[in-house]
Input
Amino acid sequence: MKRMLFILFVAVVGFVGRADAQQVALKTNALYWATTTPNLGLEVALGKRTSIDLSAGYNPFTLNRELNLKVKHWSVMPEFRYWFCESLQGHYLGVHTGYAFYNVGGVRIPFQGAESKLNRYQGWATGLGVAYGHTWILGERLNLELSIGLGYAYTNFDVYECKNCGKYKGPGEKHYVGPTKLAVNLIYLIK
Output
């Protein structure tokens, strides 16, 4: 996985060096910021109707130290996109993968039972999915993008008995099929 991400990074950096107007975009997901997670994305047009998007987020914050509430994690999600009109404009379909490492405690985890709030989970996740999105032009260099993705994810984790004491309960894993991506991106086009 690390080798794949490195190759993807080198490819994106190579394309940035030769890009012209509206071939490279910086973006940030407003929904991800709503979870207190700083994030940044880079999208590069590969051809007239294709692009590659690489988005990453990092949350180092403890929400409440007294209760040990936290949703600490880092994640990376590359996505290949096919645009129906032209790269970085209009409707697209995408195929994405991703990797995340997390340390979550004292909060209810989506698509888990209510008991997830009583435990702390530390582990990693990866998956694959498909996405649909649309980009609207707001100005000469500013766009807005909405995107949703569905797919499969696998996670492997250690469970700790309570959010404060940290007594080890054991290992766990989960297979998940459902939403894998939701984004409201503000995009700045680099010329």
Remarks:
- The beta strands are 24-29, 39-45, 50-59, 62-64, 69-83, 90-105, 120-137, 142-160, 168-190.
